[in-house]
Structure formats: structure tokens, C-alpha cells
């Protein structure tokens, strides 16, 4: 049976590494837990490390966080939908917003619940996902800041999430200038510029982060230890917090090429035939995991001794060549994961989740 291991020591190591770097740069931060998909075992691991601020894009996950530790600060990190506002106000202390009507509805709901809900206004800086356009920001703030039971505590932005636009010192300075303009015009203090995500960490490490940026929302780098600017590990961080273990359920020597009339497979793909391989054979292993759980392109083999040939809904097929490691049925094949692979595996109810 396939299962996922979370290495407690490596997670804590990466957390302490990042905690030290943020402290050194006088920057606050929260941990994004969305890759954990609300798994309570793993959420407890985060909380037990001393995390005091958790961010997520699913309100049900934040409800679990509040159940485990009610006093922890929770942040809902996508624009709320009208139909879940009651839960957003109930379980999230802060939410990221870019629509006036939504904030007005939050104000009404917070009044009903007799709470003050905190808001970070998201600003568009080029990646074209969520965010108020910069030339509308002053008017937007003017419409929002007097609403009852709502407190604007920051400006934020997201980069690299949709179109791959990378953060830069200039873009982040622009956001800091928006904050200064609003503070001067309205004589109101905005404490946070929440412009940092995992992709922005290299700017901080290279001392290129504008001083006005004082808050980060970090997920991927914590769990995978990667520099997203250069697609390589960050020196001093660990990349094996999560490890997928799959079991070989068939091991046979078979022809390299399929036999018979070909049509598209379950993914709508047509297999290309290399006629030079006719007559050759290799050992093929079937694994007890498939497309229903994860796209194989997000799996990283822990050694180079096999190739992922393809997958169906419930099985992945490996080519082991001459099988130099003498793998057999029942053996485990281990993979590191890319971020989207981790997200898929954590979201699969069919993969057991373990802590080691």
C-alpha cells in the first residue's frame, strides 16, 4: 500500500532555518498550510513546532486549526466567496480581499458575530491573478476603511502564481509606496506590507528586499526547501520533508513496445513507436498509485535507476531496465515530490499519511 511520510525533524529544521532568517531581517511571517490539505496529524506537527500564524485557502482547514489551538492567528489567503463568509469571519482572524462588495458583506457578518475582522487589501502588481488595480487603490481604500467591524491591517500582493511574473525590488517598492500614499492621505496607519511568498525569499536572502516589506506568507519553501527563482535547493535547507512510498504490485519482464492496433490512452495520448526497439525487453514494475492520486510528472525518483513510462487511473508503470537492484513484488519505491505532487498526494484520501 502506498503511503506518505512527513519527516518531523526535517520539517522542524526548515522551520527554524526560516524563523532565523526572518528574525534577522526583521520580517514577520505566517506558515501556509494548504499543501497539508487539512490533515490533522500534520497540522498538529506545525502547531507543536511553535507556529503562531497559519494561512490556508480552505476555510475548513482553518476550522481544524482553531479546533486544535483556538488562540492561533488564522489567515484566509484567497478572496472569500459570498456563500462562505459566515465561516470566514468565524474561523479566520484575517482575510485577503480585493472586492468592495465582499468586504461590505464581511462587515455585515462581523457585526452579526460581534467581531472585528482584519483585512489585507490585495494589489495587482502584474501577475493578473487577484488584486485591486493600483490606480484604483486610493478610492478602494476610501470605500473600505470606514466600514464597521472591519480593520484594514495591510496591503499585499501575489506574484508568480498564474503567469509566472517574478517578484522584483521595483515591484515591491511600488507596493510600499502605495502604503505611504494611503497613510498620508487618510492619516491611518497600515501595519503590514504582505508582499512576500516563497518565491520572494531569495530577494530577502540576497538583501534585495525593500525595508517596507515586513510580512511573508510561506508554504512551499518550508516543505520543499527550494529557491523558486533558480529552481534549486536553498543552501542550508532540507528537501526531504515529504517522501512518497509506493509498493510494487507486479514485476515482469515484458517487451519494450506495445503490441496491436494503437489508439489514444486514458489521458488522450497516442504512444509513439520507435521501431528500433522491436524485439527488446525490460523489467516493468506496476506501482499501487495512479493518476487519481498524482500526475507522475510531479514525482522525483530518489535514484536514476528507473524511468516512469506512464500511468493509468490507479497504477504507475516503471521501466527498470535489467533490474540491477533486483526489485521484486512487495518492495517499496520511494519518491521525492514537487509542490503540486505533494498537494495532490495530501488531497488523496487513498494514501495513508504517516509521521516519521
Automatic annotation (TrEMBL):
Keywords: Isomerase, Pyridoxal phosphate. InterPro entries: Ala_racemase, Ala_racemase_N, PLP-binding_barrel. It holds the Pfam family Ala_racemase_N. One of its GO terms (molecular function) is alanine racemase activity. SUPFAM superfamilies: PLP-binding barrel (SSF51419). This is Alanine racemase. Its cofactor is pyridoxal 5'-phosphate. Its EC number is 5.1.1.1. Gene3D superfamilies: Alanine racemase. It is an enzyme of class 5 (isomerase). Residues 7-226 form the Alanine racemase N-terminal domain. It comes from Echinicola jeungdonensis. It comes from the Bacteria.
Amino acid at each position: 500500500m502506498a503511503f506518505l511520510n512527513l519527516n518531523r525533524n526535517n520539517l522542524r529544521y526548515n522551520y527554524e532555518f526560516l524563523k532565523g532568517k526572518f528574525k534577522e531581517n526583521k520580517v514577520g511571517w505566517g506558515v501556509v498550510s494548504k499543501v497539508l490539505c487539512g490533515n490533522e496529524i500534520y497540522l498538529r506537527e506545525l502547531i507543536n513546532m511553535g507556529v503562531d500564524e497559519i494561512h490556508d485557502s480552505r476555510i475548513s482547514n482553518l476550522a481544524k486549526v482553531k479546533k486544535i489551538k483556538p488562540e492561533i492567528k488564522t489567515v484566509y489567503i484567497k478572496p472569500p466567496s459570498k456563500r462562505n463568509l459566515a465561516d470566514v469571519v468565524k474561523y479566520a482572524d484575517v482575510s485577503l480581499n480585493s472586492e468592495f462588495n465582499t468586504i461590505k458583506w464581511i462587515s455585515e457578518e462581523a457585526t452579526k458575530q460581534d467581531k472585528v475582522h482584519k483585512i489585507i487589501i490585495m494589489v495587482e502588481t502584474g501577475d493578473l491573478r487577484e488584486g485591486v488595480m493600483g490606480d484604483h487603490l486610493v478610492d478602494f481604500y476610501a470605500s473600505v476603511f470606514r466600514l464597521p467591524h472591519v480593520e484594514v491591517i495591510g496591503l499585499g500582493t501575489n506574484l508568480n502564481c498564474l503567469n509566472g511574473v517574478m517578484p522584483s525590488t521595483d515591484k515591491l517598492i511600488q507596493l510600499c509606496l502605495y502604503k505611504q500614499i494611503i497613510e498620508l492621505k487618510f492619516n491611518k496607519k497600515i501595519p503590514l506590507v504582505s508582499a512576500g511568498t516563497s518565491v520572494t525569499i531569495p530577494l530577502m536572502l540576497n538583501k534585495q528586499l525593500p525595508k517596507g516589506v515586513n510580512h511573508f506568507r510561506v508554504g512551499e519553501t518550508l516543505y520543499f526547501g527550494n529557491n523558486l527563482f533558480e529552481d534549486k535547493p536553498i543552501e542550508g535547507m532540507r528537501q526531504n520533508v515529504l517522501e512518497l512510498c509506493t509498493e510494487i504490485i507486479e514485476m515482469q519482464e515484458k517487451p519494450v513496445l506495445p503490441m496491436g492496433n494503437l489508439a489514444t490512452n486514458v489521458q488522450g495520448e497516442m504512444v509513439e513507436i520507435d521501431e528500433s526497439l522491436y524485439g527488446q525487453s525490460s523489467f516493468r514494475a506496476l506501482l499501487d498509485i495512479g493518476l487519481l492520486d498524482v500526475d507522475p510528472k510531479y514525482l522525483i525518483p530518489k535514484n536514476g535507476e528507473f524511468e516512469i513510462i506512464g500511468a493509468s487511473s490507479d497504477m504507475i508503470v516503471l521501466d527498470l531496465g535489467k533490474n540491477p537492484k533486483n526489485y521484486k513484488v512487495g518492495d517499496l519505491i520511494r519518491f521525492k515530490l514537487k509542490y503540486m505532487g505533494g498537494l495532490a498526494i495530501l488531497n488523496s484520501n487513498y494514501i495513508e499519511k504517516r509521521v516519521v
